[in-house]
Write a structure and sequence with these properties.
This protein is α+β, with helices and mostly antiparallel strands. The protein folds into three domains: 199 residues, Cupin (Jelly Rolls, Sandwich), CATH 2.60.120; 62 residues, no CATH class; 84 residues, no CATH class. Helix content is 22%, strand content 24%. The protein is built from ten helices and 16 strands. An eight-stranded antiparallel β-sheet has the order 1-9-6-11-5-4-2-3. Strands 8-7-10 form a three-stranded antiparallel β-sheet, with no helix packed on it. A three-stranded antiparallel β-sheet has the order 13-14-15, with helices on both faces. Helix 6 packs across helix 7 and helix 8 crosses helix 10. The radius of gyration is 22 Å and the shape is globular. Bound molecules: succinic acid and cobalt (II) ion. The site of succinic acid has 12 residues, from strand 5, strand 6, strand 10 and strand 11.
């Protein structure tokens, strides 16, 4: 887990900072592990199903303009980049390299359905994405190298001239943090920030997801002008049970839609949104034969590995896989919790037909690695 500064506990972090205030945590993760190398990151950025961007900082005197290119990139192009003033960003790294998901274990006090992805960036000296705001909370974990962050909770105006490709704010000084390996900066949504590599560096961003009001009210007359995000500044660490969407989360979602949906519809929609995958990284589901084969593997007390791209959650009444929902039995809670914690389903925990049927359904929805086809 992150080492909080002073005697701050996870509960106090949630109470004082989560969704409220930025927090700089020096040496919160003395060594970022698992880590990825600059070459591995560049290789990911050459792949078709990996979302990647290059951002160039074009300087003229004090003025900086930011130009973005989207991947996939040619390996030779990446190898020939200049010595300064660019950064390469790769999204959803944990879905392509499942071992990297271990980094999420450093924030066990956040329900895992709230975590969207691990974005990893490599910046050459002078590189960065410019001053901006994000809509979601983020833990910016510094890997190798050095970066200087500026952070402010002041309102900063947009700067439409700074980029044709990116939403950039005016530059500001704010509070400056000179960060090195192991430092972590937590930012709530909407806080302007701006990080520039002072030495070539890697940054691991554990970014959150939060559905918006309009995601729940599709097809209903809803004012798009007022489209707030799901918020949980009152989050309690006890809500963070692996894969679990708490009834408190459902109540917050109900508040978000002003009671325009009934409890069951809110719960179902929240579960589906919490497990929604991007089209290009949605795992393939098992066909009927493969699903039965997987169930047989389990019956023989085998284990199934959860697919690296699968999004799985459960609440008091349902299980959700990649935005699909199925009712669950009360007895499913134990194996669902264990499976979500380990990303492995232990067949010894599947003891009745109801659970077996649920596993068969899950495998058809793309929950597990499939056996190699002959
Ligand atoms: C980065 O890794 O350079 C960008 C992270 C961010 O500002 O959100
Ligand atoms: Co940002």
């Amino acid at each position: 887990m992150l080492r909080f500064p002073g005697k701050l506990s996870a509960e106090q972090f949630l109470e004082r900072y989560w969704q409220k205030n930025p927090l700089f945590m020096p040496a919160a993760l003395p060594h970022i592990r698992p880590a990825i190398t600059r070459n591995e990151l560049a290789w990911l950025a050459t792949l078709d199903d990996v979302e990647s961007r290059l951002v160039f900082s074009q300087r003229s005197g004090e003025q900086v303009r930011y130009r973005a290119e989207t991947g996939p990139f040619d390996a030779a192009y990446l190898a020939a980049l200049p010595a300064r003033d660019w950064t390469l960003l790769v999204h959803d790294v944990e879905k392509h390299v499942p071992a990297m998901r271990k980094l999420f274990d450093h924030v066990p006090f956040i329900p895992d359905w709230r975590i969207d992805d691990l974005m990893v960036s490599f910046a050459a000296p002078g590189g960065g994405v410019g001053p901006h705001r994000d809509n979601y909370d983020v833990f910016l974990c510094q890997g190798i190298g050095r970066r200087e962050w500026h952070v402010t909770t002041d309102e900063i105006a947009d700067d439409p001239h700074a980029s044709d490709d990116l939403a950039i704010t005016r530059t500001f000084k704010g509070i400056t943090h000179a960060v090195s390996e192991g430092d972590v900066l937590y930012l709530p949504p909407g806080v302007a920030h701006w990080g520039t590599a002072t030495r070539a560096c890697m940054t691991y961003s554990v970014g959150m997801r939060a559905p918006q009001r309009s995601d729940f009210l599709i097809g209903l007359a809803d004012s798009q002008q007022h489209n707030p995000f799901y918020r949980d500044p009152d989050l309690l660490a006890v809500e963070a049970v692996p894969g679990f969407i708490s009834s408190e989360a459902r109540k917050r979602a109900q508040h978000l839609v002003d009671g325009q949906l009934n409890e069951a519809d809110v719960a179902k929609t929240l579960g589906c949104l919490a497990t929604q995958t991007k089209d290009w990284i949605t795992p393939e589901g098992a066909d009927d034969d493969e699903a039965l084969e997987l169930a047989d593997t389990l019956l023989q007390a085998g284990k199934l590995t959860v697919h690296g791209m699968a999004c799985i959650a459960w609440d008091d009444h349902s299980v959700y896989v990649n935005a699909a929902q199925r009712p669950r039995s009360p007895g499913d809670a134990d194996w669902l919790r264990s499976m979500c914690a380990l990303r492995v389903l232990d067949g010894a925990l599947i003891v009745d037909t109801a659970a077996r049927d649920c596993v068969i359904w899950m495998s058809k929805m793309g929950a597990f690695d499939l056996p190699e086809k002959e």
